[in-house]
Write a structure and sequence with these properties.
This protein is an alpha/beta fold. The chain has 8 helices and 33 strands. The strands form 7 sheets. The protein has a 7-stranded mixed β-sheet, with helices on both faces. The protein has a 7-stranded parallel β-sheet with strand order 15-18-21-24-27-30-32, with no helix packed on it. A 7-stranded parallel β-sheet has the order 16-19-22-25-28-31-33. It is globular and about 65 Å long.
Length: 424
């Protein structure tokens, strides 16, 4: 019988609706990050760097490109005959077939997979955070505390604590109480959504709560175990951790990569971030081109000016174009003379000549003010912006657009031009 000490279950089925048009056709963990990577590369790389060689990836929403990216796990050295990476979508059973309805329900539907490896411990991970963590150190903490469950926690500013599930611990780090997104938090120790369970405890809890609708770890499983006498402890993580769940935090995390001394270092030899890479020619910067304080991907050609940007691969920045404080994803074309200021532009977008993005004063977005905010221009993949138009702030564009759709040549701040799909 196969026996693994610890296996990882990576929850990568979420839609990431707060990223708006970026995830209309794409699972959030498959969204580009840092000019070269996908968000899911970070937890996968953490696994192999931590010595975990068995990872189940639970997918659901728009999984095609995520599945293609993971493949058989070669970039992360997870193409193993025993273990390795396994993609686990929902599947039809003889009775009671259903989609994954909550984080714990997704794990419950894959009990057979976990049992096959008969692990002592199960590590539960989220597929949409940017961080580096040695899970082996967390497991050592779990063992030394004699814990049944360990939650990774991160100290957030007290004024932000109400956005998270927070825990209250005693002097030894043993968790006494949980508060899920409290209005008046009594603690700033936020749960990171990273858990280590003794498998016997987790399995029993999943079976006991199998009929709970949308069964979730933070709301149901962990409080249930705690009430039934399980020892639940906190593991205080001190490194860089970013939940890139909103357009603002996603933009911010990318921009932090190009700071003079980046808080999050992609270049460390001892803790590499692995990804599936295409074979591309080197980047080219023309004599008329200028690049400062930016990441520029392979195969990108720069004929204009780029400053404080994260640029993917295969991008073309036209002559006379000025691009600043922006994220430009793979295979996008920025036309000659265009000005791009504080934008997130997805893959395969064409921005016409002399277009200006990010003009004027901010105004709340009329369509989805909570999503399209932060003063950003957000453009979904495969979109087209015609020549000689201007686009304001807190705006969203998705699909092939024409000049007639820009009144007086302007999409004013707070407006949206959504031509494709109903999920934008």
């Amino acid at each position: 019988m196969i026996k693994k000490e610890m296996i990882a279950m990576l929850l990568a089925g979420g839609q990431g609706s707060r990223l708006g048009v970026l995830t209309s056709n794409l699972a959030k963990p498959a969204v580009a990050f840092g000019g070269k990577y996908k968000i899911i590369d970070f937890p996968l790389s953490n696994c192999i760097n931590s010595g975990i060689d068995t990872v189940g990836v639970l997918t659901q929403y728009r999984p095609l490109r995520l599945n293609q990216h993971i493949g058989i796990g070669i970039p992360w050295d997870l193409d193993r005959s025993i273990g390795g990476v396994t993609v686990l979508p929902p599947y039809e059973k003889s009775s009671n077939s259903q989609w994954y309805t909550g984080t714990a329900n997704a794990i419950y539907q894959n009990l057979e997979y976990i049992d096959y490896y008969n692990p002592e411990y199960v590590l539960i991970l989220s597929g949409d955070h940017i961080y580096k963590m040695d899970y082996e150190v967390m497991l050592d903490h779990h063992k030394s505390m004699g814990a049944d469950i360990t939650l990774a926690t991160y100290e957030v500013p007290m004024e932000e604590a109400s956005r998270f599930g927070v825990v209250i611990t005693d002097g030894d780090g043993v968790i006494q109480e949980f508060e899920e997104k409290p209005e008046k938090p009594r603690s700033n120790k936020a749960s990171m959504g990273i858990y280590i369970f003794n498998w016997s405890i987790l399995k029993a809890a999943l079976q006991e709560l199998k009929d709970v609708p949308s069964c979730d770890f933070g709301k149901h499983i962990i409080p249930h175990c705690h009430e039934n006498g399980s020892k639940v402890v906190a593991y205080d993580f001190k490194g860089y951790w970013k939940d890139v769940g909103t357009l603002g935090s996603y933009w911010e995390a990318n921009m932090e990569l190009v700071d003079i001394i980046p808080e999050f270092n992609l270049y460390e030899e001892f803790w590499r971030i692995y990804t599936k890479s295409d074979i591309l020619p080197p980047q080219y910067i023309d004599e008329s081109g200028k690049v400062t304080e930016s990441i520029v991907g392979e195969g990108t050609e720069v004929y204009g000016e780029v400053s404080h940007c994260v640029i993917g691969s295969g991008v073309t920045i036209g002559k006379g174009a000025v691009v600043k404080d922006s994220i430009i994803m793979n295979n996008t074309v920025i036309g000659e003379g265009a000005v791009v200021d504080k934008a997130i532009i997805a893959e395969n977008v064409t921005v016409g000549k002399n277009v200006e993005l990010g003009v004027g004063e901010e105004a709340p977005n009329e369509y989805k003010p909570q999503i399209y905010a932060f003063g950003l221009v957000t453009i979904g993949e495969n979109s087209t912006i015609p020549d000689d138009v201007k686009v304001g702030k807190n705006t969203a564009i998705y699909g092939p657009t024409e000049k007639a759709e820009y009144p007086d040549g302007l999409l004013k701040s707070g407006s949206s031009l959504i031509k494709v799909g109903d999920l934008a």
